[in-house]
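Q: Can I see a sequence and its folded structure?
A: Here is a first one.
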Amino acid sequence: MRVINIHEAKTHLSRLVDQAAKGEAFVIAKAGMPLVKVMPLDAPAAGEMRRLGFMRGQIVVPNDFDRMGETAIAEMFGHDP
């Protein structure tokens, strides 16, 4: 995430706000210390972005998935399968 010093943020506030509204969040820092994070109002709250298990039951992984293509791979390296 981009870190902008407070002086630059004041100088380019309109442009930075437009970028943040389009989803390009950034941090404003003072003397190198992060102070605030600027992001769009409709941005997902922390923790909402990762939805673990949202496709549960929709994907089937075969039991031999770790051996799929092993013959072709062995042939590419000049080995007998």
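Q: Show me another, different protein.
A: A second, unrelated one:
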Amino acid sequence: MTPLRKIPAIFYRSASGAEPVREWLKALGKADRQTIGEDIAYVQYKWPIGKPRVDHLRGPVWEVRSSLGNRIARVLFAVEQSEMILLHAFIKKTQQTRESDIEVASKRLKEWIDGQSN
């Protein structure tokens, strides 16, 4: 049996050193953090996968879908250079992921890519 190959997950870091997804996770309760962490790990081992755990949003941006009891969490990510870059996260309040959330993730991905080429 071949061992599972895991793609590494890394947190997007802004020029000022902030890691918005890590900071968002730290603000959640332990059970919520654990659920989201398990969902991210599942994606790391199973990538590429689709619904219900993952959904494609636009271009290179995907979302990890986590159910937290009566709330829904999303972690937006992209896979670049065989790494899962965690770009943006939020508790979902509407049926559809807001365009503004996708824009935040796209902007952060562009910054991350630009930073890699320096």
